[in-house]
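B., you asked whether I could sanity-check this one before it goes into the benchmark set. Here's the sequence:
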Amino acid sequence: MKDSRKFQMHWNNYRYRKETDGIVIEEYEGEDLHVVIPPEIEGIPVKKIAPEAFSSHGALIETIEVPETVTEIGDGAFKMCMSLKKLILQNGVQKIGENVLLVTAVTEMYLPASVSELVRPWEWGKIALEVAPDNPNYFSDGYGLYEKHPEGYALVAVRAEDERECYEATPGTVCVKRHAFEGQMYIQQVVLPEGVQQIEEEAFESCQALRRISLPEGLKQIGADAFRCCINLEGMELPASLETLGEHALTDTYGWSPSMNGIQYITVQPENPYFYNDAYAFYRRGEHGDTLIKYFGKNETWKIPEEVTEVGPMALRRANLREVTIPETVKKIPKDAFQECNRLECMEIEADQVKLYVPENPVYRKVEISGLFCLDSDGNLKYDYAAYDALLQEWSQILIRCRMAAFRLEYPMQLNSTQKEAYQALISEHLKDLVYDICKRESLKDLEALGRAGMITTDNIEDMISWTTECHRGKLTGYLMQYQSEHLGADEFDFSL
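And here's what the prediction gave me:
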């Protein structure tokens, strides 16, 4: 709620202030269903609508008409106008801020020719947007919203609720902007025309129906997290022109469920000088050796090629491997390279010198135990699994020991069957106390670790749900119920309110 005392002037249902170029409407206080903002107050033109100006008293408004004198609409100006169905903009408005129509009932709108700046243009993918034909900065093909640039068009937003299954971007497009396809619910195939040179970061984030995308020759850059949570994306063919691939651009296509496996294949045109693939994985060439970016093989044993000197982030996430051999050429492996490799039993490291980062564990952040690590002759860290197991046995705090045990089961390299059974028994014995501790810390991450470690079973799932419910931890309870449905053969749950 705005503090009205800060406003110096009041006229009818508006609080406002004067600036050198005109009036700024700071707050609407009326209860009208149909609001026509005045073009002037006290003979001075109304030039701006301040951020969240209508958010406090606009819940009943059904239509708002903005006069041609207004040149700028601030962030969230009509936010929370939940009954608002129609926003009428006159030719004159130039800048529209972010979240202007957040939590409103507006489904379509006309964008006049005067508009030159949309602060967060991807937000307009949530409504059907008609753009004035003579707007020099934007246009719409009826489905996608584009920016006009001297070098070509930039696709900035795609309608999220349009039910067509295939979208072909307009010829002349050179860039797919950040969040352009975010949350699109129906598109299964995207075709990008020749001339597209860049896909920005997070461009297709959570485009969950997407299965196929056609990338043209000439594409040079794919940004970080470009296809994050594209859980049904089957694969991708990369052109010879591709030069740059951002972090997690093709490795973070999973959903939270282990049944969502991410991209299943990546092929690269053989003429590409920067990237290549074989039958098992996708790689980046480097001056001093290659980087393994994404493993997509289905075999249970695999040796990383000797051309590889570095393993990239999440490169082997959810791999079906039971055994993997790391050749002496590999010098660096990040902490998340083998994330959720729940079947991995053996990791054979041929090198005497390798920089192997251990997966995240709260114990390491709180305690420095030099015995867990050793340094090679080049000063690189090597992880000592035996030292970790010894530390686990000696740790005095039982809940910390349980958390360490869950972590070890999740990453069972060099773990024999006797140790595995002992860790499982330790967690089972103290499961109730551990779950209550997880509830106390509201740590969904630790609960997920128990699931990945195989410690959530048909025998204990009902008790765990009961404990999290008792502690009023809805997010934790929801995870357990979903886990039960996904992995333990239970009926699906209806989470709708």
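One thing to flag: Residues 1-5, 355-377, 491-497 have pLDDT under 50 and may be disordered. Otherwise nothing jumped out at me.
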